[in-house]
Amino acid sequence: MTTPNDVPHRLFLAVGRLSRALRQAGAPGPGHGAISAMATLDIQGPLRLGDLALKEGVAAATMSRIVATLVESGFVAREPDPVDRRAWLAELTDEGRRTLHDLRSERIRELCSRIERLSDDRRAALEAALPALEALLDEESDPA
């Protein structure tokens, strides 16, 4: 029998292992932190380094290294901040957007392949669990 404490532990391990398996199944590319930063820039638009670090939950020095690598790869450009001439904004380039799209597509294809190998009952259970999983990501969610 599963105890209440088993569920968070099993979910944590399963999500981590699935994420790692999807990363490893694809072609080499930017690391997890870089992909996450690119996705944030894709959604939010250009951001100051400190704001991007805050949204990603990492130190500014860590984000500085990530962004420097992304700039060097051509995935992110540094643009002057129109509000403060001393500052700059990190902005996802067209190449960065294409790369992000390709990585997502590749990982979704791998995930589809794994889901197709599940039994009908397990696919149905996975689909039924999606609203609860999505609610875990919604800070404003109603616990009901």
From TrEMBL:
InterPro entries: HTH-type_Bedaq_tolerance, HTH_MarR-typ, Tscrpt_reg_MarR-type_CS, WH-like_DNA-bd_sf, WH_DNA-bd_sf
One example GO MF annotation: DNA binding
Annotated HTH marR-type domain residues: 1-135
Superkingdom of this protein's organism: Bacteria
Keyword tags: DNA-binding, Transcription, Transcription regulation
SMART domains: HTH_MARR
Transmembrane portions of the chain: none
Keyword Kinase: no
PANTHER family: CONSERVED PROTEIN, HTH-TYPE TRANSCRIPTIONAL REGULATOR RV0880
Entry protein name: DNA-binding MarR family transcriptional regulator
Organism name: Prauserella isguenensis
